[in-house]
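Give me the fold.
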Amino acid sequence: MKKLLITFIFTLNFALASYSISYKGITLGEIKNFKSLDENYLEADVTNFLAKVLLGKKKFVFYNEDYKGKKNDKETKYKKDKYAIIYLIKKAFANDVKSEVIEVKKNKFITIKHDKNFNFIYNSKGRIKSKGYLEMKDDKFIKFVEEKNNIKISKID
């Protein structure tokens, strides 16, 4: 019973954890949950004052090719995910990250190799569009680092 309670508390703590999203070293906002991954998008609140002023929006949404939702909320900036971020984070949350080559769409592949982290390269139509790594701890998502385009999503401690 004690072990079950500890596992429940750890899982609840992880589920309620917030993540920051940064671009080129500047924190843009905060992701409060990842439930939206089921619908092929990732939503974040804009927390950086300068980003809020420049965007003129309170939220931003990254969505992939399979997103079927509307893109008409006046308070939200919508941006298509060209770097397979949604796909990789979905795999991380499903605890389905392993060394493999995945065909995302025709002529679009993700190669994942494991050393101390899960390194990935996203190749789209013969060009490397994205590369970086996923950091997992105890089969839980901790950090996504996209090195080519300098995007980072990491757990806020």
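Confidence is low (pLDDT under 50) at residues 1-15.
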